[in-house]
Amino acid sequence: MSELPPCPKCNSPYAYEDGALLICPECGHEWxxxxxxxxxxxxxxxxxxxxxGDTVTVIKDLKVKGSSSTVKVGTKVKNIRLVEGDxxxxxxxxxxxxxxxxSEFVRKVQD
Length: 111
What we know:
YjdM_N; YjdM_C; 11 strands; 29% strand; Alkylphosphonate utilization protein; N-terminal domain of TfIIb; YjdM
């Protein structure tokens, strides 16, 4: 018997298969394990997959909340870190400091 992954909502180990779906009997959550792996992938504005340590370029002028400064188009950001949440990239930008960016406003720099 194959080992099924725990429920992504409540972490229950009692998930069972129903066709292509997995179902949690404790919280009632249903999910497709093939799509669940795809959901955690962070992509840039053109669809490239991002990972920790990548270098990206900002594709739009971005106002910095709580400040009068702006991150200009073409700003290169090195060594990004992917995080959960609305702003899925944590980084440090020269002249501004630590901040969070949305992946939809960056493009991966190809090595």
